[in-house]
Amino acid sequence: MKNNLNKRKETELNNEQYVEELRKIYSQYIDPDYAEWSKNYMRNQFDFLGIRTPIRRKITKQYFKEYGVPTKENLQKVIFELWDLPEREYQKAALDLLEVVKKTLSVEDMSWLTTLIVKKSWWDTVDVLSPHIAGYMFKAYPELIPQYADQWILNENIWLQRAAILYQLFFKKSTDEKRLFQYILARADSKEFFVQKAIGWVLREYAKTNPSIIKEFVTSSNLQPLSKREALKNL
Fold first, then answer.
1. What pLDDT score does 12 carry?
2. What is the pLDDT of residues 145-162, one digit of tens each?
3. Element (H, E) at 141
4. CA–CA dist 182, 184 (Å, integer)
5. Is the confidence at residue 4, as pLDDT, over 50?
6. How many of the other CB atoms lie within 10 Å of CB of 28?
7. Euclidean distance between CA atoms 31 and 29, whole angstroms
8. pLDDT tens for residues 170-226?
9. Residue 82: what are its φ and ψ, rounded to 5°?
10. pTM of the complete model
11. Distance between CA 107 and CA 168 in Å, rounded?
């Protein structure tokens, strides 16, 4: 009965603008001071409502519980509508939604998911999209890797490069070492902070699983100093 109720409410909200209803709820929690702090913290890249992350997540979780989530047919539209809103909390809501529904995603969805990486790009969205969404997709559908991740690392867009490097961040023993090291070496000479940082981060994380191979790789590779420091931080 509850699932049917959620499904019915979601259909009604789609007809009455699912995103607009969430906007109304978010508007009750606006904090101008925290919004200004957040904007400064993110180097003035985006506007904010000023909703602190734990509060936003609680609100959004309750929203999904009460009204359900968009149907598969409506999902892309809802995600893009959230992504197009100026305040950063709405992109975070879109990511929360993707996390909830990711097991319903199929190979056909990878194309528009990639769009999210290159639109309104910054570390806070890419670092969710890459390991949590793309990482899930590439594990579920490894045939997507040559078409997407292998191409991302060659792309001049630094956020696609970062996404390619980070999608295996939490793979642990499932990590494809050959592909990971290949990606890293392809961008080892990058001058971009966010690429250097990604290299160090993924190596540091994988060092928890295979510290000896990371020591060997870092020692024998011509990585940027930042990447090396990050990689070896806990070794």
1. 55
2. 999 999 999 999 999 999
3. none
4. 5
5. no
6. 8
7. 6
8. 999 999 999 999 999 999 999 999 999 999 999 999 999 999 999 999 999 999 999
9. -65, -40
10. 0.92
11. 18
- The rounded distance, in Å, linking the Cα atoms of 72 and 121 is 25
Average pLDDT, stretch 61-86?
Answer: 95
Tokens of residue 66, six digits: 């009460």
Residue recorded with tokens 């904010």: 48
Query: What tokens does 32 get?
Result: 């101008």
pLDDT of residue 213: 98
Helix segments in the chain, DSSP class H: 2-15, 18-26, 32-41, 53-67, 72-84, 88-101, 110-118, 123-128, 135-140, 149-152, 158-166, 177-186, 193-207, 211-220, 225-231
Q: Which residues contact 132 (CB under 8 A, 6 or more apart)?
A: 95, 99, 102
Query: What CA–CA distance (Å, rounded) separates 113 from 130?
Result: 10
Q: Which residue has the tokens 């990447």?
A: 227
Task: Count the neighbouring beta carbons within 10 Å of the beta carbon of residue 223.
Answer: 24
Closest of 113, 120, 108, 160 to residue 134, by C-alpha:
113
Q: Distance between CA 2 and CA 6 in Å, rounded?
A: 6
Q: Contact 192/159 with Cβ under 8 angstroms? A: no
Mean pLDDT for the stretch of residues 123-140:
98
DSSP-assigned letter for residue 134: I
The two tokens of residue 121 are: 């790009």
